[in-house]
Task: structure prediction
Amino acid sequence: MAFNIKIGQYYEADSPIHALDARVKLCCELAALVAMFCAGNPAQLVLGAAFTLSVVAASRIPVGRIAASIKPLVFFLAFLSLFNLVFVQSGAPLLVAGPLRVTEGGAWAAVLYTVRFGLALMLGSLILLTTTPTELSDAFDSLLSPLARLGLPAHEIAMVFSLMLRFIPTIADETSAILDAQAMRGGGFDEGGPVRRVRAIVPVVVALLASGLRHAEGLSRALDARCYEGGEGRTHLHEQRIERRDLAAVAIVAAFIAGMALL
Result:
């Protein structure tokens, strides 16, 4: 059994989005997401969709790859749409079938929240698809560095975030190997009732925790052998610089936010 993990995987491409400074991408992404979640009328949704599709086209990432990155959350979007469609009862009725009553307000809420969350998920996935884990950790380190004066270990937090992204495929491979080993020993995960299936997962969780602790211990020894201390004064192989394309990206996002506010 193999896991095809698409969430959080960097997609290499020669695009203007990939070339942006990671700090600028994070800040612009956050500002665009806030503006997207504030959309409340059809004109704002159209503008948000046009902006999102333009960014996707500029990133030169296949639409199928982006769809695969948000595929695990499609069920959440469907549930959100159905929940609003059934439980929002404002406006004139559109459909009445026994206890089921669909109104104009419910239909609009189903469209609004589903489209809004869908566009936000597409924008959010572009951060991980167009930025390497190293660039992300350096960006977090730089953005959190002013808080170090207040005692916040900014560098250590950025490093933990980088290691988390680094070990996602490793843990996925470990899980696949453990499931295959359990299946060869006769441990079925798709047989019996819910209680039996939960019990069958317990050995996998225990083995996975043991594997994670082993990786953590090996990593700590490697850092100790390299005399790693963290903190201030550490340099980077590739220094981050704000260039004209980054300023242009900020201007485009500012124009998008202004357009959302005017609409």
